[in-house]
Amino acid sequence: MAPYFLRNLLPRREQRAEGRPLLEVLATLTWVQWGHFWSGWLAWTCDAIDFFSVSLSVAHLQTQFDRSTHDITTAITLTLLFRSIGAVVFGIISDRFGRKWPLIINLLMISVLELGSGFVESFHAFLAVRSLFGIAMGGIWGLAASTALENLPVEVRGLASGILQQGYAVGYLLAAVINLTLVPEAAAGWRSLFWTASGISAFAAFVRFLLPESEIFLRAQAAERARGGSTTKKTKIFLHETWEMLKRHWLLCIYAILLMTGFNFLSHGSQDLYPTYLTQAKLFTDHNATVATIIGNCGAIAIFVLLIGAFIPLWILPSSFGALAAGAFCIQFGVQGAWGVIPIQLAEISPPAFRATFPGVAYQIGNMVSSASAQIEATGAANLHTTIIDKNGQPKVVSDYATVQGILIGVVAAFVLVITIIGPENYGSHFEKSKAAFEEGAGRDEIVEDDHSHPNSNMASRPTSLQIVDEKRSTPEPV
């Protein structure tokens, strides 16, 4: 038999027992299922708006605090570093107590801290607020993805995953549009971007408030009440099952972190300093740099890691607005296209009872490792210079962001390609059939014996991929 990574290279048609046509399944979704999906999407969109508020305001923040680009990007690095804490805290709370209120509280926290970011007057206060913001922000992805995907039938989760992940590109796009239209007109300047982002996050919390708890948690809680389980007992079981999960899936945890490290380097390396690169290395105005960012994110919204390598020259070599905007469009099409499969990929390979904690922590630790992307690029560009012709036809020495970013993205794209090929998958996993994290056996990936109460119970009689994969998971997947 061919080695695992070689078999991953071979195209194959996946089979799902009694799989129904996509349009037929979409027609059966209830308004609550649609509501859960779009509330998760909106939460993830808010995450991007709030995060990229700093990236789009680097020049304004330099003026406000009289600091260098390297100093300002420290705020981005700190936000990414502290997100792992939030992923652990909110992921555990969500897997233990449910999806609804942890996500609402999480969104309200980032709303308050984003609002506070727009009021600070000193650089150190700004760094402190952005660090706290990172903790709050860290919980969003795992909670948003589990809220959006776990209540949907298995047949539509792949499509839903792609749409969910593009909420990040939509958020960046919205932040860029606000920066282009509101910021130049508002007396508050760059602060108005942060305040607007805060309001959108509060609105997302209100939307989630209107929707019920996840059906899977309602089912598990009802079963526990029927068995007479107390809160103290459920917490003890949760802690025990968490330890069982870590013993069973430690190698899978390492793989997921490596995968997310590569993907986060890919996104942050191509996005965080892009507006600064255009203004300082290509001498664009703030207006044109923001327009190019918008065009780039349109490409992202419009799955291919291989395309990224092909588009790098178009992204960094031209000097004209049209060519660079086309490069931004293509590079973000590749980056975000590849990202589109990540929510469902992580949800399917994760220990099924820990669908908020496992993907969220893996994602945010990857963020933590890649947190220095902007500073790596800023430092590299500060020590590498090139000469360009300015608008007056005169030669000018500028920081060579193009070469630094091109090398970083090229190396990371190759890493992501390799780590994806050699990694495991669990396509079509019926993780909705698994026990909740506070039920005995959850850490061993046990499924619920009778899940006919689930809204997708027409799938209950089918053989599930979890039943097939459970034995395979007793030994770690090859990495």
UniProtKB/TrEMBL annotation:
Residues 36-479 form the Major facilitator superfamily (MFS) profile domain. Residues 442-479 are annotated as: Disordered. Keywords: Membrane, Transmembrane, Transmembrane helix. SUPFAM superfamilies: MFS general substrate transporter. It is a multi-pass membrane protein. Residues 455-467 have a biased composition (Polar residues). One of its GO terms (molecular function) is secondary active monocarboxylate transmembrane transporter activity. InterPro entries: MFS, MFS_dom, MFS_trans_sf. CDD domains: MFS_SV2_like. GO terms for biological process: plasma membrane lactate transport. GO terms for cellular component: plasma membrane. Residues 442-454, 469-479 have a biased composition (Basic and acidic residues). It is found in: Membrane. This is Carboxylic acid transporter protein-like protein.
